[in-house]
Protein 1
Amino acid sequence: MRPLPAPDLTQTAFFLDIDGTLLDIAPTPDSITIPPSLTDDLLALRARCAGALALVSGRTLENIDGLFAPARFAAAGAHGAQVRPDPDAVIGHMHRPIPFELRSLFTALVDQPGMFIEDKEVTLALHYRLAAEGALAPARVAAVEEAAARAGFSLLHGKKVLELKPAGTDKGAALRTFMTLLPFKGRRPLFAGDDVTDGYAFATLKDLDGIGIAVGRSFPGAAYEASNPSQLRGWLHNLVSAP
């Protein structure tokens, strides 16, 4: 396997997914475990790259802040529906409420024990990792997808999760926004992710001369691959430990 990159920290902007990338996947979003040294390593990396570090996640900004409290990071939440370049800024929301009919149609996809809805306000996520059949009915998903498109929303397919979100918001768009702003502007973006939802960010790297690290699988646009989150965390630790 190709060794992970050794980027110039003074010239690189870091964008890191959380679940499945920095953290090991857990059965539910609330059951993840944060290794004790991870927050310290992220803070050290942010200092070494003059603040050009952001977390890019399907979680909301409120949830991200809760995970790493009392530390706060620049972040994109809810797959790009929330973008906060300044970690100390007040959290803002996209005010595009999900229409009642669309919300009802989406939540009705929950038809097996183990499935559950995570309401993120700006998006809805249907988790089915714990469902016995482990799959959604394609015809019903297609019907929801058509209704979502008519309402200006879209469905995002991830690892045992289906998310209803405003159309045009994704991690790639969030990364492009960050790269127009200081302290990210003028640097080379590095993005690490693990899920199909991260494909939007990997796809933007070519135009930005960026560096992609896929975790646990290969991705178009990612020249490097970490076998699992533990290896990526070790790589981050080595970056901040190097003289």
Protein 2
Amino acid sequence: MKRFRATFIIWLRDMKRYFRDHSRIVGSLASPIIFIFILGVGLGSSLRFGGAAAGLDYKTFIFPGILGMTVLFAGVFSAVSIVWDREFGFLKEMLVAPVSNWSIALGKVLSGATIASFQGVIILMLAPFAGIHLTPWMLVRLLPLMFVVSFSMTGMGIVFATRLKSMQGFQMIMNFIMMPMFFLSGAMFQLSQAPRWMDTLARIDPLTYGVDAMRAIMVTDLPSRFSIYTDVAAGRGISALMLTVAVAAFGRQV
């Protein structure tokens, strides 16, 4: 019980910090809104996007990708709290406390995944403006999937945060990693006609499977790249791997 109590306390601490920072909540909505309503409308009208389904609105096509971008950035950057805690000495206090590294890592991953999922839910409220009408059955499938993607992205951020010593270094390295992940995931364009080298990189991109699954649920007129079972299995596997590596990374902080 002590292990799970420590996990809950770490999760609760991060959640309180998040909901008390109103500017962070509002600021996290800026990029998705710009991508959907400015880039989506601008590129859609310029490219006259039809995709695999003729007449498909470009905003509709990119909406699942923007949802994936939201949980990617929110999940990864929630791990910056580890760098912050290290600078102020709180991380060392957690590591020398009589709790396991597993409890600490799980608490951090769960809090980041919860925050990213919450921001994803906010973006889902914009779905009608992108031409997507969500049904209860869609939400039943989307919400757990979104949490799995958030979990894996947060785990990845934590793995890097345990190795980087400064806020500036973390932000630079993660931006360098996240932008290729976002664009290679198929969030902004279809990968079916992409060159072979890009297709290969997309297949090893963890975000690809989350975006593909969310698009398969929300945009039924467009054939998915992989089966929903493949996407979910990949998401669960990546989540388990990232949690395992995060636990090992915390063990090296002592």
Protein 3
Amino acid sequence: MSREITIAGVRISRPEKEMYPATDEAVAVTKADVAGYYADLAEAMLPHLRGRPISMQRFPDGIEGSSFYEKKVPGHFPDFVTRVEVDTADGAQQQVTIEDQRTLVYLADQACLTPHVWLATAEHLHQPDQLIIDLDPSVPGLAAVRRATTAVGELLDEIGLTSFVKTTGSRGYHVLVPLRPERDFDGVREFARSFAQVLIARAPDLLTLEARKNKRGERVLVDIQRNAYGQTAVPPYVLRARPGAPVATPIGWDEVSRVAPGGHTIRSIKRRLAQIDDPWAGIGRRRQTLTKAAERLRRLTD
């Protein structure tokens, strides 16, 4: 018989449901485990979630069952879950924002394993405060995607931008540049494209902007397409729907060569945070403008 438990003030239905099956390396992860994880990690996660519309990636029967993305707030969601109105191709709609621990846990009870966040906040929906470059390997192996990620960080440093890196919990790495919300998405994406073109010109055998896998060869995709209105990215410390419950993990630039994209899981991340300072702590205070960096980038192409 199913039972209910309460975590962070939220009743968890069917807490024993397996969301991640057991693997050779780890026991199964239940819905109670997921809810408890999000309750425990809320303090580290919330600075990267608050004020941002999210898309909920839901797995009613765990990662081995069917899944779906949900943007619009379902009618049954309680009043404590905050909303923001956004414009879509189908008109205005309400989307969830995660402002507190209780909402994180409630979404876990709704089988939302991974909340994906906008690159803009509700205050400036059309002016992003993040630029994200997604390094996606075309073939198995870590060497190329690690070189590509390091190259991104080095060029950003060369043009005077402070950047942060995280594992995606999947196959690659994300590089994030915190921005002042001044330019619109088109302006930020134009900068990202120019940046990628300079980067690729320096290492054409390693990098590409070609989205089609059959045309990439073994090159690493420098994906800039997340820099658009309504697009999303996985925020720090969320779980990914892959065996072993890997976690999108902020790392230091010196860790790219040591920490694999799925290197930390629901079982190891708390130990990591107990041992080291969060590499992304205070990231909101590092917002920058792109003006001078764009000028430096242009000079590199002259």
